[in-house]
Amino acid sequence: MSQALTYAYYPGCSGLGTSREYDQSTRAVCDALGIGLADIPDWSCCGSSPAHTVDHVLSAALAARNLAKVEAMGRDTAVTPCPSCLTNLRTASHRMADNAFRERTNALLDTPCRNTVTAKSVLQILAEDVGLDALARKVVKPLAGLRVAAYYGCIMNRPPEVMRFDDHENPMAMDGILAALGADVRPFPLKVECCGASYGVARRDIVARLSGRLLAAAEDVGAEMVATACPLCQMNLDLRQGQINSAGGTSHHMPVLYFTQLMGLALGVPEERLGLDKVCVSPRGALRAAAERAAAETAKGSKA
Amino acid sequence: MKIGVFVCHCGSNIEATVDTASVAGTARAFPDVAYATDVMYSCSEPGQDGIIQAVREKGLDGVVVASCSPRMHETTFRRAVERAGLNRYMLEMANIREHVSWIGKDREANTNKAAELVRLAVEKLRRNRALFPKSFDITRRVLVIGGGVAGIQAALDCADGGLDVVLVEKTSSIGGKMAKLDKTFPTVDCSSCILGPKMVDVAQHERIALHAYAEVEEIGGYVGNFEVKIRKKATFVDWSLCTGCGLCMEKCPSRKSHDAFNEGVGLTTAINIPFPQAIPKKALIDARFCRQFLKGKCGVCAKVCPSGAIRYEMEDEVITEKVGAIVTATGFDLFDHTKYGEYGGGRYPDVITSLQYERLLSASGPTGGHVKRPSDGREPRTVVFVQCVGSRDTSVDRPYCSGFCCMYTAKQAILTKDHIPESQSYVFYMDIRAPGKLYDEFTRRAMEEYGARYVRGRVAMIYPKGDRLLVRGADTLMGEQVEIEADLVVLAVGAEAAAGSPALAEKLRISYDKYGFFMESHPKLRPVETNTAGVYLAGACQGPKDIPSSVGQGSAAASKVLGLFSRQKLESDPQISQVNQRRCVGCGKCALTCPFGAVKMIDVRGEPKAEVIETVCQGCGICAVTCPQGAVQLEHFTDNQILAEVNALCQS
Ligand SMILES: Cc1cc2nc3c(=O)[nH]c(=O)nc-3n(C[C@H](O)[C@H](O)[C@H](O)COP(=O)(O)OP(=O)(O)OC[C@H]3O[C@@H](n4cnc5c(N)ncnc54)[C@H](O)[C@@H]3O)c2cc1C
Ligand code: SF4
Ligand code: SF4
Hints:
The complex is a heterodimer.
Chain A: E1 5-9, H1 13-16, H2 20-33, E2 35-39, H3 48-54, H4 56-72, E3 77-80, H5 83-96, H6 99-106, E4 118-121, H7 122-130, H8 132-137, E5 147-151, H9 160-163, H10 173-180, E6 184-186, H11 199-202, H12 204-220, E7 225-228, H13 231-239, H14 241-248, E8 256-258, H15 259-266, H16 284-303
Parallel strand pairs in A: 1-2, 1-3, 3-4, 5-6, 5-7, 7-8
Helix pairs in contact in A: 2-15, 3-4, 4-5, 4-6, 7-10, 12-14, 13-14
Chain B: E1 3-8, H1 20-27, E2 33-39, H2 45-58, E3 62-67, H3 70-83, E4 91-95, H4 97-101, H5 107-126, E5 135-136, E6 141-145, H6 149-160, E7 164-169, E8 183-184, E9 189-190, H7 191-204, E10 208-212, E11 214-222, E12 225-232, H8 247-251, E13 257-258, E14 267-268, E15 271-272, E16 284-285, H9 291-294, H10 300-304, E17 317-323, E18 325-328, E19 332-334, E20 351-353, H11 354-361, E21 382-389, H12 405-419, E22 424-429, H13 439-448, E23 453-456, E24 459-465, E25 468-475, E26 480-486, E27 488-493, E28 495-497, H14 501-508, E29 535-537, H15 547-565, E30 570-571, E31 577-579, H16 589-593, E32 599-604, E33 607-612, H17 622-626, E34 632-634, H18 639-651
Parallel strand pairs in B: 1-2, 1-3, 3-4, 6-7, 6-18, 7-10, 18-29, 20-27, 21-22, 21-27, 22-23
Antiparallel strand pairs in B: 5-30, 8-9, 11-12, 12-17, 13-14, 15-16, 19-28, 24-25, 25-26, 31-34, 32-33
């Protein structure tokens, strides 16, 4: 991290609503690391799932409108915390590499998109542009003793030819970041499995089954907390944990935080900027247990 | 000159889109053409007889056959003209099948093009002259590269046929993959019981010289007279003294060495004899693990060896062997399953390869034939087999079928039930490919008698759940997802070309496909020959093959070598370069460009001149185009002949 990093920033609609704490903690963490996030003026919805189920050109145009605005800012990288926005932005770029497709897309836009912007996730720039060593140096309150499973969701890295980030079956970026912050990162086998995504509305039973499996697997590897990078995953695992428990006859009590919230804690960001009170299953117990475990370790270490 | 032209129908292959009668008609007007006709199948007996008869009756001096590619039938027609009493080089072929009828549907355009190609051949033939091969002596010894079952068979058949054999094997024992197998399909007979005696025969055969732990470094020469440099890698044990007693293995303190023979299941000592039936049964030191090499002190084996065989200072040795023919039998390697992240990418100890499983099943394996999970040594109850791991999957660039995995998986499912009667096996498959004799019956037995449950579909994911593995896949017959909790997962990894195959192919000057498997000369009619005379193929180095086919090819390659050596002398190809020394200015450019080192510079009355070594020249013609003076000419492809062809095309 030699010189100041600044990126065009695309929070995504959920960042202003259901995942406020993801947006807040992302901004706070970037602040703490000296990364500039320049909001894209007049940004609009990327089209989310509905657009691309109707029409690929329409979907690309909704995303490209934002990419064109990043071009107008004179920047070549847009970052977003949300993997679903990221997929739409990257898929639009990927498709627009075909000139005919780009022309059809631009026909729907007032300002044409030249397709010169690369969209990346917040996770990617933290792992690749900042780097683990630099992160480790900035830690003031290590996450020592925190047993955590890193959950990437199914679209952060896939399809690999579009996303071009990390291993699409066994990504390690978030594992690496959390480990650099001192956490005890468990080898979570379902890190790229689907949580049920938007089926939470239409087919709750599916989400209960898929998300329930994720929680069980996290418990299985001894995790006391799940770190996510996706608003929809977070919602399914956290908000719907009660539904999952009643559907499956389980009694999971697994806090699910955004990895940026955990980063904020380790980097010493004041808690009120991290929105820890916005999640349903309180992380307090797990954080306390981790702190006690860490203290016990230190005591043992100093005795020895 | 009197030329005869024979335009072939090739059944309907050519006739359907070329008016052959009209081509023959056009040809009658070409210079020197005394006779032209169309023929149904010119390569058939009546077809060839027709050519011979015409030569005799019309007094022809040369023949043009307009038919298929010369790669297909040039030899056939050369023999025919020879039988008619002409020199075999008084034949030209016009390829009007691959170059005309098979690539265009427009009959009129095709007919015109065919006539032009015939004109070209006629113009060339008018400038042909009789060429005569020279004969040379043969070194009646054969080199076999690779000591798997295919190489062993080839070596034994050649040796039994009276030839001296040099067998070069990369590892320290012959046997190949078959030596690692427990039982073999479809008869479930013990692999080492049927292979072991053959290995012993190799060791004891007076005509076979075995170089184990050796590799071919360089190959020079040509059919009948190859010169091969062989690198005998340092074993750090003098094999002329080592008796194979194994005392060193008992005492070696470095007990955590990689056990290649057991596919990394279990460990071995730094000095080791890979397995009790090894041929040769000699010890070697793996310097990557030996304390003497790593720490500079130990020397235990040197102290305990009763024969004083240990030589830490040993170095590689390069020897030269002269042979007349080469059989390549370097086999295959296994697909690296860690490329499949969804199957754990090598992270889960209880997800193993099929060959590792063979070692677990084998009574001489690291577990003494007790099937135990690598993670905790527990006997598995539920075993899941996943077929086509690295076969028939374009996403990992392996679109081909490995052929034997369906069969060995059925075998392993049967053996699992034999070893652990209360176990249940599941087999995920795409299709069952069991076309051999008694093969389909065998897979049915696995299902019906041994209760293996076959699930048709791919496995999407394998991940640990507690101390077991959850295998999730599709059952495409039922149209549903299946999840099986397994104790052990066996991946039927596919076959790949053996490591280093392309490099070896280049030394041998033979072709290989894009996956590294060696190319046969003709996929149907010349399966064990290559395009380099005197080099033959056997076994899985040509493509995945089971044991019966590999052995069959070993014998086939041996019979080709015996056939080659049954001749008193071999004939050299006269289509080679010649230097006109009056024109040569001695610039030496030809000598520099020749890829085979066939041009040497000599002194002719104080002047440097180029000279072609006839036996080394391969007739590629590179020197001919390099020579600024036109002093080098490739016989049968001289500048005059080629220009005549060009003129024929451009003027028509
Ligand atoms: C798990 C498994 C189970 C199987 N079970 C059966 C079965 O039950 N029945 C059956 O019919 N088939 C079975 N097969 C297939 C069988 O293994 C092959 O048919 C057979 O091994 C092919 O023999 P090969 O000699 O061509 O090759 P290999 O066995 O691969 O032998 C090649 C030899 O050449 C050596 N070599 C390689 N490169 C060089 C080099 N550059 N220089 C010198 N030496 C070299 C190698 O070290 C090796 O010794 C099985 C295969 C697998 C993977
Ligand atoms: S102790 Fe000596 S003779 Fe015996 S196997 Fe070892 S090296 Fe060979
Ligand atoms: S020197 Fe020592 S470590 Fe090396 S092979 Fe001999 S006994 Fe084993």
